[in-house]
Amino acid sequence: MAIDKLFFGYMAIVGIAVGGALVAMPSIQNLAFKPYVWIVLAVVLFDVGAFLLGWRAGGERLLMPSRMLGFVVGLALMLAIPALAGTPVHIF
Q1: Are 76 and 15 in contact (CB under 8 A)?
Q2: What is the pTM of this model?
Q3: Residue segments in the chain with a per-residue pLDDT below the cut of 70
Q4: Which of 37, 42, 63, 91 would disulfide-bridge 14, Cβ 3.0–4.6 Å?
């Protein structure tokens, strides 16, 4: 399986988890690190984890367009889930 497909699935799971957390506990929007920063950290952690697990050893890399698309997928799910649940979300 290509590393970018794994990444998109991972970012979908992260986006659903962050969106669900925002629905369950809306007060976490007021923490020092905003929820969109969690999505950025998930991107970085996947890349570091892929390197440490040796997934990139075969020359297969996660390219920048894939990273940006994964970020958009995670961010869209993070915003869509609370919107569908009726929970007000502010990003900044």
Answers
A1: yes
A2: 0.86
A3: 1, 56-59, 92
A4: 42
